[in-house]
Write the C-alpha cells for this entry.
Amino acid sequence: MRHSIRRGLAAAATAAAAALALSACSGSSTPAESSGDDFTPITSIKLQLQWLPQAQFAGYYVAQEKGYFADEGFDEVEIIPSGGDIVPQDALVAGEADFAVAWVPKVLGTLEASGVELTDIAQVFQKSGTLQVSWKDSGITSVADFEGKKIGSWGFGNEWEIFAAMAAENLDSTTVEIVTQDFSMNALLDKDVDAAQAMTYNEWAQILEVVNPDTGELYQPEDFNVVSYEDTEGAMLQDAIWADTERLKDPAYADAAVRFLKAVTKGWLFARDNPAEAAEIVYDIASNAEAAYPVGPVHQEWMMNETNKLIWTGADFGLVDQAAWDKTVAGALAATNQDGLNLITTDPPESAFSNEYIQKALDELKAEGVEVGGEYTPIEVTLTEGGQ
C-alpha cells in the first residue's frame, strides 16, 4: 500500500475538545472482551504525529510502505504530520485522530490541565534523546551551570526536561531565561543563547553539518559542551503511542489498537534491521510532502541511526518500563519553570499507561515467528555539509 499523507496541516484542536465524555477508571485499561467476532473490525484509521515527516517516525511510514498495515486488515492508514500547529494529544481528544505520537510529560500536563483521559499503549522511545549544547568556552558543562543563563528551547512542552533536571539538583529555575529557538541551531551559532536544545537525532547533527569559518571544515563534537538529559535525573520518556482511554472499552477500537501495534512493531523492526533503506523511504516521503523540514538524505540516515538507539535497548518493543515511567512522573511533579509554574501537581491516573495492548500485539507476533526484541547495532554515518 502506498503512503497516504494529509496534504497541508490542519488547525490545532481547541480546548473545547476537553469536554469529551469520560468515565471513572480504576487501574490500567485492559483490552475489551468480545465473544468471537461480534463487532465490525475497524479498517481505516488516522495517526497524528508530533512533527513533520522524518526518520524519527520511520516505523510508521515503513509499516505503510511495506504493507504491514494492510496485512493487519487496514484498508487505509492516514499519517498526519504536524509542524507545531497541531498538538497530537489535542487532536486525539477531539476525535481528529485515532492514535497519536507524543512525549509523555506533555500528555501528563494535558491530562491534569483538561481532565481528559488518554492511555500510553506503546512506549516507542525508551531513552531521552534531548541535549543542551553550548560552545566549548561557555563554562556550561552540567545542569548545575544553568542558573542565570539563557537556555534555548523550542517550547511546546519541550522545556520540561530542563526544569526537571534542575529540580533534581535543587537549582533555582526562576534564574533561567528561556529563549525560544527555532528548529535549527542558529540560536547557538548566532550566540543568542548560552546553550541550545537539540535532539541527538536531529539538531545535534544539524550543527555538525555546518562549516566552521575558522577551519573551513565541519564543526566537530569537541567544539561543544553537551549535556545529555538521559544522564540526569531529569530524563523523561518521549515518543509514545497514545489511545483514547474511553474508546478502548469498545472491542472494535481495542482490536484495532492491537492490530495497529503489530504493524507498527514490524515497521520499527524493519527500520532497525535496514536503517539505510528506512531512511531512504522517509526521505522520499518528506521530499514529496507539501510540508517537510528541508534536510538531506545523509541527515535522514543519521536520524534513523540515532532514533534506533533510543528504541532498541534489549527489551521487547514498546513496553512501558515502570521505573522509567515513575522517574518521568517524579520529574514532572518536581519541575517548576522559569515563572515558578508546575507541569503537574498530582500523580496521573493509573489509566495513563497500559502494557496490555502492546503485550497482546507482541504475543501474537511471537506466535507468528517474529522476534520482537533485541538491541540495535549502529551503522557508521559520516555527516556532510547540510546533510546532503
Notes: The chain is about 30% helix and 15% strand. The chain has two domains: 36-127+237-387, 130-231. The two ends are 28 Å apart (CA to CA). The beta strands are 44-48, 76-80, 99-103, 118-123, 130-135, 150-153, 177-180, 196-199, 224-228, 239-244.
